[in-house]
# Entry
Amino acid sequence: MKDFDHLMSVWQGQPKPDQLSVDEVLKQVKKGIRSITTKLYWSIVAMVVITIFAFIITFFLAFKSWVTTVGILIVLVTMLMYLSLIVRHYHILSKRDATLNPAEYLDSLKAYQKNRTKVIGWFYYIYTLLISGGLALYLIEVLETASLPFKLITYGFTIIWFLFTTFYLKPRMFKNEEEKLNLMIDRLVRLKEQFD
# Structure
C-alpha cells in the first residue's frame, strides 16, 4: 500500500503540460505568416522588375541571331511562371485570418504546406534548368566577340552560381521556411488539442 501511495504522489507531482494562451499563439502565427508574406511580397516586386527588364531587352533590342531572342524568351516565360507561383502562394497565405476560424486556418495552412513542398520540389529544378538554358542561348551572341578565357570564365561562373543556388542555397532557404511553417502548424495543433 505504501508503494501505491508513493506512486500516486509521484504521478500527481508530475508537471502539468503548459497551457497555451490563445492570444499569444495567434499573435505568433500571425507574426510568422507576416514574415513569410513579406518575403513573398518583395520577391514579387523583384520578379516584376526583372521581368519588365527582360521584356524590354527582348522586344526593344535588336539581336543578330534568333537564338538569342529564343534564349531571352525562355528566361522571360520561366520568370512569368515563377511569378505566378509566388503570387499564388502570397494570396493563399494573406487571404485568411487565423483569428476568425483557427481550425479552418490550420487545415488551410497544412494544405498550403503540403502543396508548397510538392510544387517547390520539382518546380525549382525545372526553373533552374530553363533559366540556365535560356541564359546559355542568350550568352552565345553576347559573348561571340569576347576572348576564349573570358567566355570560359563567364560560363564557368554561371555554372558555379546555378550549382551553388541549387545545391547549397535552395535547401537552406526552403528548410528555414519549412521550419517556420512547422512551428506555426505545431502551435495551432497544440492549441486545438487543448480545447478538444
Summary: Residues 87 and 171 are 21 Å apart (CA to CA). Residues 21-195 form one domain.
